[in-house]
Amino acid sequence: MHSNPELSFVEFETSLLIQKKLSQLGIEFENNWVKTGIVATINGGSDNGKIIALRADMDALPIKEENQSTYRSKNEGIMHACGHDFHTASLLGTAKVLLELKNYWSGTVKLIFQPGEEVLPGGASLMIKEGLFDKHPIQKIFAQHVTPEIEVGKVGFKSGMFMASTDEIHITATGVGGHAALPHLYKNPIIALSKAIIQINDFYKTTKHPVETVIAIGNFRADGATNVIPNNASALGTVRTFDEIYRKEIHKKIISICDNVSKETEVKIECNIIVGYPFLMNDKFLTEKAKNNAKDFLGEDNAIDLPLRMTAEDFAFYSQIIPSCFYRIGTGNKQLGITHGVHTSKFEVDKNSLESAMALMSYLAICEMQTETINN
User: Fold this and answer.
1) CA-CA distance, 78 to 349, in Å (whole number)?
2) What is the pTM assigned to this prediction?
3) Hey, how many other C-beta atoms are within 10 angstroms of the C-beta on 84?
4) Which domain holds residue 111?
5) Quick check: 222 and 190 in contact, CB under 8 A?
6) pLDDT value, residue 372
7) What average pLDDT does range 54-74 have in this prediction?
8) CA geometry: angle at 281 spanning 280 and 282, to 5°?
9) 141 shares its domain with 217
10) Domain-ending residue, one of 275, 297, 327
11) Closest by alpha carbon to 219, among 171, 257, 155?
C-alpha cells in the first residue's frame, strides 16, 4: 500500500486490495461506501448484543516522497505521508487476530475502511450520510493514528476534548489594476487584503478566547509586478477551536472584518468560510478504560496522557454521534532516526510499531467485548 498510494476518494486499487485480503480471510464485507469504502463484519463466538467498530482511513497526500526505501511510493507526487497505509494494514492484521480468537469474545466487530480523511467534507461524514449508523447499529468506535513524536511501544490517550474543529478561510479581493506610477487610477487589492489579514490576526492575538483557538493565514497570492498593480489578490487560512457556538462567532467576526475593510478601501472583498470537521470528543469512560487496558497490555509506563491537539480529524464526525476513543500509537524511533513528522516528504515509521498497533487494537476490542478481565 505504501508503494501504491492513492489520493482521497480515488483509492480504487487500495480498496480492491483490502477486499482481496478480507476475502482470503473469509470475512464478509460490503463495498462501495462512498465508492471506495468498505465495512466488514466479524462475529464472535456468541452474541451478547454488543456491536463496536474499528476504523482505519486509507487515502494518501499530494507529497513527493524523499525516502529511498524499497517500498517507497511508485506514484510520483503522491505519498502515504500521514500513515493511513499503516492504519489500514494494522486493521487488516487486527481482523486476522480477532477472527482467530473469535471463540474468546462475544458480539460483533465492524471494520470500517474509510476513504477521504484528508479532504473536506471528509469520508467519515459521507459514510454517515450514506447510512452507516442506520444500517449498522454501532454502539462504540475506536481508531488509532500514527505518531512519530511517541516512541514505538507506547500509546497516548486523551479523554474528553482532544482535537480541534477545522474550517477553511478563502478571501478574494477585487480592485482596479493599473500602472504603479499612477495611483489615482487604481485601487490596490493587495493593500486592502493585507489590511484585512492584519485585522484578522489582531483579533486572534488580542482576544481572550473562551477555548483554545487558532486563526492563521497560510497562503497569499497576487500576480502583479514591480510596476504592475493586479486586479485581484487572494488568501487562504484556517480556523480551529473547541466550541461550536464560538466557532460560528469567529466566522461572523472574520466576515465582518472583511466587509468593513472593503468599505474603507473601496475594494471588493469576499470572504467564504468552508465549514470542515467538528472537534473530536473522546468518551471519558471508554477512553479511560482503554488507557487502563493499554497499561495492562503494554506496561504501566507505556500508556501516556496527551494534551489537546489543534490538528483535526474527520473521525470527529463519529465522535459527535456515538462513544468514541481515538488514540495515538507510537511509531517513532530516535535511535534509528525515525523522527520526521506526518505530512512531510520523509515521514517514516518504525516497522515494529505495526506489530504493537495490531496487538493493542485487538486487545482493546476483545476487552470491550468481554465482561471478565483477560489474563492471557
Assistant:
1) 17
2) 0.93
3) 29
4) 12-163+279-368
5) yes
6) 47
7) 97
8) 120
9) no
10) 275
11) 171
Q: Scan for cell 454488543, then name that residue.
A: 50
Q: Taking phi first (over 0 means left), then psi (-120 to 50 degrees means alpha), and beta for anything else, what does residue 185 get? A: alpha
Query: Which H or E run includes 190?
Result: helix 189-206
CATH number for the domain spanning 231: value is 3.30.70.360
Q: Tell me how many domains the chain contains.
A: 2
Confidence of residue 39 (pLDDT cuts 50, 70, 90): very high
Give the pLDDT confidence score for residue 347 in this predicted structure: 97
Computed over every residue of the chain, the mean pLDDT equals 97
CA atoms within 13 A on the CB side of 332: 14
CA separation for the pair 324, 319 (Å, rounded): 5
pLDDT in tens, 260-275: 999 999 999 999 999 9
Sign for the CA dihedral angle at 353, 55, 120, 323 comes to negative
Nearest to 18, CA basis, from 58, 70, 54: 58
Shared-domain flag, residues 176 and 121: no
Last residue of a domain, one of 275, 299, 329: 275
User: What percentage of the chain reaches a pLDDT higher than 70?
Assistant: 98
Matching residue, cell 451478547: 48
Alpha-carbon distance values, 160 to 52, 157, 280, 303 (Å): 19, 10, 8, 17
* In-domain check, residue 376: no
Give percent helix, percent strand, percent coil of the chain, each to the nearest 5. Answer: 35, 30, 35
pLDDT at 374 over 70: no
Amino acid at site 365: A
Q: How, if at all, do strands 155-157 and 303-305 pair?
A: parallel
What distances in angstroms separate CA 128 from CA 9, 14, 243, one per listed residue? 15, 21, 22
State the pLDDT at residue 147: 98
Cell numbers describing residue 18: 483490502
